[in-house]
Specification:
Number of helices: 4
Helix content: 10-25%
CATH architecture: Clam
Low-confidence stretches: 1-17
Largest sheet: 13 strands, antiparallel
Mean pLDDT: 91
Strand content: over 45%
CATH topology: outer membrane lipoprotein receptor (LolB), chain A
Order of helices and strands: HHEEEEEEEEHEEEEEH
CATH class: Mainly Beta
Length: 256
Amino acid sequence: MRTILILLLLFLSTILQAIDSKTILEAADKIMTPPYLKGVFQIKLISRNQDIREIEAEAYQKQVGDNQENRVFIFTFPPSVRGTGLLVHSFFDDTESRMWMYLPSIKRIKRIALETSGGGYFMGSDFTFSDLISRSSEDFNYTLEGEDILNGEPCYLIKAQGKSKETRRSVGYLYTINYYRKTDFMIIGVDYYDLAGELLKRYRVLEVEVLRDYKFPSRVIMENVQTGHSSVIKFTQLVIEDIPDRYFTHRYLQNR
């Protein structure tokens, strides 16, 4: 019996040693990144005093080959932002990612500068514009920090930190601690640390929707622990179906 127990412990030890950050990241990407996705999202902006403001938009996302991901958001509510559009071209090679916003009040497209502190906050939420950019894993160092329990779910903890000062300044964070659920490697939480190394905000997945072979965080919260402000995003009408390339152009922002 002792021999069997020793062999079992050795077997389990070998499995644990085989789990590294690269394995987890690749598994997460496979389960959470459909080739295209569209839906509607509603954001509740909640102040420290519990005042609530709501925003709604149509959202479209599409993978373009192995090195590019495009996103577009068309805002429909409230009336003060209706018609506003946000276009994102993310690149995973050496090409610089780009972002533009269409402002219907002046009928112009504005380039958003992402070079400093993430480009500011997205529509008054707790997500920065930089949070909407998908980035190459080659720009970061990943370290498996151990394990923890988040909302009753056993998770692997991975620390992600930009390799260069420029990358860290661009994303707006010194590093993040990412919670990958052990059962399926889905990321269900992120702790963001500001450039001074202080905890800035927490992202948590509240609900998950299964779409074919993929899992998508259909309701999430981002809480800024330094300001007391939080943002809850709920995605509805999620569909995996092809999206025309014209959706991800300046012309579409202006003339849809």
